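Fold it.
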Amino acid sequence: MKLHVPIQTILTEHAPLLARVAATFEANVALQDELIQEMSLAVWRAFDAGSFSHEEGFRGEASIKTYVARIAHNKAVDHVIKEQKRVEVSGAENVQYENAVTEGDGTDQTLDLMSALHKLEVKYRQVMALQLEGFNQNEIAQTLGLTESAVAKRASRARQQLTSLMG
């Protein structure tokens, strides 16, 4: 499908979405910036008619927002897996974010929620991040390549875990 919206416009409009997805999956601010750049490049390539990325390209079967979110979440999952392997190999730990959260007086619910989201398994984090972005179950299912039933189960389990973590 030929897209009539300039890629720069798409990236500008969806920059906040990319930033929130990056923040959901990566606590380290420097690594968030790197992840946003990776996501932006993947979006650019996916919409590029002469794309040399592994994305199939925009076919118009979903909204542009859903398509951008899918690319962002795929990149975020790849990033989490890569970082987990790096931490396992190097033995390094990312404590910067945890320290920032524990230094507060506990009243900042946004930091509490982000901290709790970072503790969820990736499959639950994905669903919750998309719900927080305002996606409905059908859109989440399309974005993640799941059934709506699987999305509902993951959302329910994620909410239970978040309630426990934040309780």
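Confidence is low (pLDDT under 50) at residues 50-55, 93-107.
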